[in-house]
Amino acid sequence: MTADRRKRHLKILELISTRAVRTQEELAEALTAEGWEVTQSSVSRDIAALRLIKVGGAYRRPSSAIVPADPNVRRIADGVLAAEPAGEALVVIHTPPGEANRVAVALDRLAWPDVVGTLAGDDTIFLAVKDGPAQRRVLGDVRKLTGG
Question: What is the DSSP string of 71-100?
Fold first, then answer.
C-alpha cells in the first residue's frame, strides 16, 4: 500500500468516526473538501479495503462480535484507527482527533511488558517498545484488539 493511500485510509477512518457519512458520494465530497483528489470508484475500493459496514445508514468500522469487558481494552478497540511500525523500537498509533490521550492512558493501564512508554498528541501516539520482536508483538496485540 502506498503512503498516500494509507493516509487517505486514515482520513476516511477519521471522517467516519467524527460524522455520519451515508453514501460514497458524501465520502468523496468530504475527502475532496480535505484536499484529496478521489473518484467514486477509488472511494468504493477504499471502502472495500477498509471493510467498512453500514450501521444505521452510515459507514462504520466493523466491530468485533464480542464487546470487551475491560474498559481499557474497549477504549483501544474503539479509538485506534491504525497502528504501524516506525524504526525498530517504535509503534505509531493513529486515533480520531482528540482521542490519543485517552487511548494512551488505556494502553498505560494495561501495562504491557513490551511497552517502555507512551507519548500522546492529539491524534497520534508513539509507543516505545523494548526491541524488534516486542514491536511485532505489540502491533499484533493492537491489531487483534481493533480487528485489523
Answer: HHHHHHHHH--EEEEETTTEEEEE-STT-H
Q: Which of 3.30.1360.40, 1.10.1470.10, 3.60.20.30, 3.60.40.10 is the CATH number of 71-146?
A: 3.30.1360.40
- Say whether domain 3-60 belongs to CATH 2.60.40.10: no
Closest C-alpha among 99, 120, 96, 98 to residue 108: 120
Domain layout of the chain by residue ranges: 3-60, 71-146
DSSP assigned state of 96:
S
The runs of H, that is alpha helices, within 3-63 are 3-18, 24-33, 40-50
Q: CA–CA separation, 127 vs 125, rounded Å? A: 6
What does each of the 148 residues of the chain score in pLDDT, given as a tens digit?
677 888 898 889 889 988 999 999 999 999 999 999 999 889 999 988 888 888 889 998 876 545 567 888 888 988 888 899 999 999 999 998 889 999 999 999 999 999 999 999 999 999 999 999 999 999 999 988 887 6
Q: What are 73's strand-pairing partners?
A: none
Bridge partners, 64 (sequence order)? none
